């Protein structure tokens, strides 16, 4: 199969996430970098694109210019990644999808739940791929957890505990630091700060592993650093749509926590424990037996885990490699469509617009619940 043409909006020089997308789209030799509108500054964006090896005619000054020119080409892009700041995701994703492009959008997919519903409706009406980069779901041992739950090894899943906490916004002296301040400003960040930025990764991970979506939740949001309008610490209780109970904590003031994304799943026949900072090990405790440590790459793991594992056993897994599995899954879908046999729903392993919408519904409900003394609030989707 010929390589797939790939382009990016955003991810310019010095951006946090641009390199990760270029590396991960290239890792499996499926996608070839062909076009970009990479920077808010047109000159800087074009210059950077050319330096990265784009033809000058496909290094664009704006996403509008890119959309118009790429729409006319016979060798048009197979996938466009949107890696711009949050507030622009909706408009750009919508415009590319309406012109027939498949899209991988950075999270959060939109700023509001209504926008997210519009993207899901658009995805359904166009049939285009709209993936969302919940990259942590690409870890091999996360996929192993999902398979163990699906195969019934845990029996009925009773509950989960998820966390995503760090301590890097704990310094009150950072109040005026422009890289931190906007995150807690509702005019720029929307209705939630820490839950929308980090907690939502933990919630998506739990949904992915359990095969259950959140149905209702109770949220306690706190702005612990004086002067912040939005929460820097969030605690949620959740009820999932197939009965599991969830507890989720996300904080940016937890000094001593680094990048603490963890998931514990408790079923009637056993429990699983995984932490992103030690991604190669999955702790599996069958009921009334000793705990077992499953190692990424060992014999006997699920096929999906093996497929996502591309380092020899014992080598540290990297987050970019997990992101690459999102690209790999999208490539599989695009190739299947090109071959005339689209994947079935169960075979789609990348997070979709629906997941992006559920996240927005959770953020919306959490913000409402937190405003009303943590009242139980149904998700509206
Ligand atoms: P950043 O501020 O470091 O970089 C943003 C880039 O987009 C810059 O190069 C900027 O010039 C460019 N840009 C801005 N507006 C643009 C426009 N209209 N057209 C073209 N380019 C434009 O931001 P970042 O940290 O790289 O984050 C980008 C997105 O990625 C955010 O939505 C963020 O939430 C998301 N993100 C996701 C993860 C993840 O784990 N999935 C991790 C980090 C960031």
Molecular structure report:
A hairpin with a 5-residue loop joins strand 11 (270-275) and strand 12 (281-286). It is globular, with a radius of gyration of 21 Å. The strands form two sheets. A nine-stranded mixed beta sheet has the order 13-12-11-10-6-9-8-7-14. It has a five-stranded parallel beta sheet with strand order 2-1-3-4-5, with helices on both faces. 35% of the residues lie in helices and 22% in strands. It has twelve helices and 14 strands. By secondary structure, it is α/β, with parallel strands linked by helices. Nicotinamide-adenine-dinucleotide (NAD) is lined by residues 9-12, 15-17, 37-40, 63, 83-86, 88, 106-107, 133, 135.
Order of helices and strands: EHEHHEHEHEHEHHHEEEEEEEHHHE
Helix content: 25-40%
| Spans where pLDDT lies below 50 across 5 or more residues | none
How do the strands of the widest beta sheet line up side by side? Answer: 13-12-11-10-6-9-8-7-14
Shape: globular
Largest sheet: 9 strands, mixed
Q: Which structural class do you get from the secondary structure elements?
A: alpha/beta
